[in-house]
Amino acid sequence: MKNKIKPTLLSLLSISIVGLLIYYWSLPEQNEFSKYRPNVEVEEEGKDVTISNKGEKTRKPANREKQIVRPKLVGQSPFLKRQERNIQKNPKFVSELIINSEQSFNNGDYDFSLVENLFAIREKDYNGTDEIVERKLNYVIVKSDSIPNLSTPVVQNLKNGSFAIFTGVLKVKLFDYAELVNINISAAYVITDEYKYLDRVFFKFDDYQETISSYEELKVNGLVELVEIELLEYVRTNR
Asked: Quick check: 86 pLDDT over 70?
């Protein structure tokens, strides 16, 4: 009897051990070595849930669109822009403009005439009470019956009616920069910029009429390939 019990007990123990082993190995990758692996997160397809190697589920935060914060542009207020446009379209203002057709010139594809009662002043230098017609770059264009201090002339584009600031600078391109020493101009000037590798030089004059007369001289000078009057007319605006 005792001999029959022993094989039966051994069989039961064997079956129990085999069952435990089968259960142990059937667990989804849960073994002693899993704790030494990094905590890798696996994303379930089609769900915003991630599963770690330990079987822990975490829900991802909702996907929110990134908000791009752009700095506010510092410049002229829309109110001032509208106000100045209204001034320029005002029939009374237009009728009061003194356009000197005898002080006209052609620059590129456009013709310009001197406006005798408009003047441009650097905004940092302006502290007067004259009516501000327009702002261009760092200048204000004012309407005045007398010539303000530190001002420069203003001309009008005869094709589109826009105003341009006359800086008194001639931008000259030479055929050969070495010929600069042979350029003779009757009016007094200073050279403000030189670009030898481009054969370019900028001449600055203090007087409107002297700038125009020098412009006409250089246009027919055989050493000059191109000459332009510098005008501050177009300004890039934010839309």
From this structure: no
* Secondary structure of the chain in HEC code, one letter for each residue: CHHHHHHHHHHHHHHHHHHHHHHHHHCCCCCHHHHHCCCCEEECCCCCEEEECCCCEEECCCCCCCCCCCCCCCCCCHHHHHHHHHHHHCHHHHHHCCEEEEEEEEECCEEEEEEEEEEEEEHHHCCCCCEEEEEECCEEEEECCCCCCCEEEEEEECCCCCEEEEEEEEEEEECCHHHHHHCCCCCCCEEEEEEHHHCEEEEECCCHHHHHHHHHHHHCCCCEEEEEEEEECCCCCCC
pLDDT tens-digit series, residues 99-114 = 999 999 999 899 999 9
pLDDT-derived band at 221 (thresholds 50, 70, 90) equals very high
- Phi, psi (5° rounding) for residue 190? -130, 150
Structure tokens at 234: 């177009």
Say yes or no to pLDDT of 239 above 50.
no
User: In the numeric block, which tokens belong to residue 92?
Assistant: 């009374």
The single-letter code of the amino acid at 25 is W
| 7-29 residue pLDDT tens | 566 666 667 676 666 666 665 55
